[in-house]
Amino acid sequence: xxxxxxxxxxxxxxxxxxxxxxxxxxxxxxxxxxxxxxxxxxxxxxxxxxxxxxxxxxxxxxxxxxxxxxxxxxxxxxxxxxxxxxxxxxxxxxxxxxxxxxxxxxxxxxxxxxxxxxxxxxxxxxxxxxxxxxxxxxxxxxxxxxxxxxxxxxxxxxxxxxxxxxxxxxxxxxxxxxxxxxxxxxxxxxxxxxxxxxxxxxxxxxxxxxxxxxxxxxxxxxxxxxxxxxxxxxxxxxxxxxxxxxxxxxxxxxxxxxxxxxxxxxxxxxxxxxxxxxxxxxxxxxxxxxxxxxxxxxxxxxxxxxxxxxxxxxxxxxxxxxxxxxxxxxxxxxxxxxxxxxxxxxxxxxxxxxxxxxxxxxxxxxxxxxxxxxxxxxxxxxxxxxxxxxxxxxxxxxxxxxxxxxxxxxxxxxxxxxxxxxxxxxxxxxxxxxxxxxxxxxxxxxxxxxxxxxxxxxxxxxxxxxxxxxxxxxxxxxxxxxxxxxxxxxxxxxxxxxxxxxxxxxxxxxxxxxxxxxxxxxxxxxxxxxxxxxxxxxxxxxxxxxxxxxxxxxxxxxxxxxxxxxxxxxxxxxxxxxxxxxx
Amino acid sequence: xxxxxxxxxxxxxxxxxxxxxxxxxxxxxxxxxxxxxxxxxxxxxxxxxxxxxxxxxxxxxxxxxxxxxxxxxxxxxxxxxxxxxxxxxxxxxx
Lengths: 583, 94
Fold this sequence. Notes:
- The complex is a heterodimer of chains A (583) and B (94).
- With 583 residues, chain A is α/β, with parallel strands linked by helices.
- Among the domains of chain A are: 340-445, Roll (Luciferase, domain 3), CATH 2.30.38.10; 458-580, GMP Synthetase, Chain A, domain 3 (2-Layer Sandwich), CATH 3.30.300.
- Chain A is built from 18 helices and 29 strands.
- With 94 residues, chain B is mainly α.
- Chain B starts with 8 loop residues before the first helix and ends with a helix.
- Chain B has one domain (9-93): ACP-like (Non-ribosomal Peptide Synthetase Peptidyl Carrier Protein, Chain A), CATH 1.10.1200.10.
- The chains are: A alpha/beta (583), B mainly alpha (94).
- Chain A binds chain B through residues 29-30, 94, 237, 240-243, 263, 267, 271, 453, 512, 515-516, 519-520, 523-526, and chain B through 26, 39, 41-42, 44, 46-48, 51-52, 54-55, 58-59, 64, 67-68, 71.
- Chain B: Residues 10-87 form the Carrier domain.
- Chain B: This is Carrier domain-containing protein.
- Chain B: GO terms for molecular function: phosphopantetheine binding.
- Chain B: It holds the Pfam family PP-binding.
């Protein structure tokens, strides 16, 4: 039994060689052009890159990978693993903010080398110079570098504890957190996912997820070669431009498995016309995994209804829960079964109690644990709670990552919790409850985190950006909250205004500026905005803003010193409900 | 922004109407609420919808566009001028 991922991949290459393939659909003009590579091709390219990496002293440090296309990324990623080099996947920056994030990741990981393609290398060099990193960073374009001889490759000294890559989906821009995923973690979670999906070597997976995101990297890119299947895929941009392409991919290749975040399934239900669906046969789908962000019952129902006439099976949805800190997957529902719903009282849920209620909020189960042990723990007392009580979700097992890179205190706090002397446990920061059959329902979040379109967004990043928008906001307190409307998460900004400095703008003008800037800079729906006078935002004695109490005040319409508001109707509805409830 | 010689406000009107219709669809609002002079971000178009919209414009007018077009021409009115110009260029070129 291999204890490292590379040996496992090599065994798959030996078994399947040219009989299994990854087919990437590259965007050329308005068309998608298929590029097919076999396991053997991937192995050869990985070995060649690994040999080249072994000649680069910068590769003793983590190496950042900046690729536009997933197939190019995969070659480089495998090359790093084959060389025993720690890979750091990252999104190619496209503006000042994303370059800033990449720069802080780079500094945090103490990287010295970036692997990319020639097309990206030139603008990247400019960005690197502008970010002040020029002295410490080398950029290499792997598509134009003279390839080394793959036959010179030797398997490095790897075992289960060897660090494979750093996953930076956690952490704010100012404090990025690199989750350390070992070879052992990867093998363990890949095995768990294979079991959860019921996958084997007859499976073809289809997808479009970003490769720098945990679900795209592990769930889509690495899983098929792990279990000996095929993958057909395209870039997220290709999907978003024409969402029907996802279904066309499934139809053309008779895909058995696919995966995506809830918002993507929502696009499928709402944005694809009958004309585009005509003639598609989706009956090959056995598993459609839904994860990475809260799962919405209405979306599952809408997709099942919309696609049933085209062969999409009723029990295809696999609802799942996980995060980078547990490599990827923690729980999943049962293959072939319809989603499990639970209707509960909304007010009780706000108080972290679960009271079944026919007309209440509909929760959907994220299934049972795979390859891990789940406990529900009271976050204040640290004691385990029984079924039916909402608490923090704690996870243990071989999929739990080694910790955060270079952050021993946070690692200790997050990854090494103990429960009545047992442990270590990962404290997820998510709230949930289990039923008597051990099915998990994720009900909310303890941590101050926003999830939009499967992406983690940190309120402090948005709060900092808002303060910089105008002198009347600079040095004033503000909070950014995520309001769950039942179908989406929508941002709400509550901010103090130094009215003496407002000058050139009106209050509505200031609110507009905030809405526009946040929408543009963070790729979100324009937020609702409440402008308040000084001291309208609650603070602790040490000056820290209190997001939770501001949320409660907003919902109860008890925000002090309101100067001006612009509230999205879907958010306003939440507030009205809270006010209407009897005291 | 330089308006191409061959396009006039009369050319823009049907494009504005079409774009407003698509934006209304993406943001789930009635089309009469869509102000063609407001930034799309303010109307509720974020990056996911923006890229889909880009794809729809490509299909409707047979163009090849960079998804950043929505940021370069942030209102419906400005985008209409751009689209009319691009469509004319494509017709001239082909």
